[in-house]
Amino acid sequence: MPSARTIGLSVGAGRLAIGAIFLAAPVTSVRLLGLDTATAARVTWLARMTAVRDSVLGAGTLVSSGRQQGAGGWLIAGSVSDAVDAAVLAAALREGRLRGWRPQAIAAGAVGAALIAAVAAAETARTGS
Questions:
Q1: At what angle do helices 4-24 and 44-65 cross, to 10 degrees?
Q2: How wide is the angle at C-alpha 110 spanned by C-alphas 93 and 56, nearest 5°?
Q3: b/e for 85-115, b at 16 or more Cβ within 10 A?
Q4: pLDDT greater at residue 127 or residue 121
Q5: For the residues 108-122, what does the mean pLDDT come to?
Q6: Measured between alpha carbons, how far is residue 35 from residues 9, 29, 85, 115 in Å?
Q7: In sequence order, which residues have a C-beta less than 8 Å from that of residue 87 and are 6 or more positions away?
Q8: Each residue of 88-97: pLDDT tens digit?
Q9: Model pLDDT, residue 66
């Protein structure tokens, strides 16, 4: 298994990249969830909020992963954020607000990211780095 530091750096970089993509292309990013262009254009503010959240979590995880105390707190925050994203997407799918394989895949990816970050946070707590 990769070290908690390596996972933290990877998670942080990935989250920072996702934030940058959502900030640079909010309509396209939201369209990936299956929304039509008009609806996606109306909720660009939400995409930008998500972009900033993920960028801050990513930057915090990256910076703290390089420090001795590790990124445990940042990894937990990201894990909770991803778990909530997955739950909200699952509810939207169940209610018929979202349809198709793309939002299902994004929800599954959020579950995976939450689990990876939680495992890395636990490893950071165990090893102290």
A1: 150
A2: 120
A3: bbeebbebbeeeebeeeebeebbeebbebbe
A4: 121
A5: 94
A6: 32, 10, 16, 27
A7: none
A8: 999 999 999 9
A9: 81
Structure tokens at 2: 């990769």
- Closest listed residue to residue 106, CA positions, set 124, 116, 93, 121: 93
Q: What is the pTM of this model?
A: 0.90
Instruction: Count CB-CB contacts under 10 A for residue 28.
Output: 13
| CA angle, residues 78, 87, 32, in degrees to nearest 5 | 85
Report the alpha-carbon distance of residue 45 to residue 17 in Å, rounded.
Answer: 18
Q: Taking phi first (over 0 means left), then psi (-120 to 50 degrees means alpha), and beta for anything else, what does residue 106 get?
A: alpha
Half-sphere exposure of 65 (CA within 13 A, CB side): 24
Token couple for 122:
């636990």
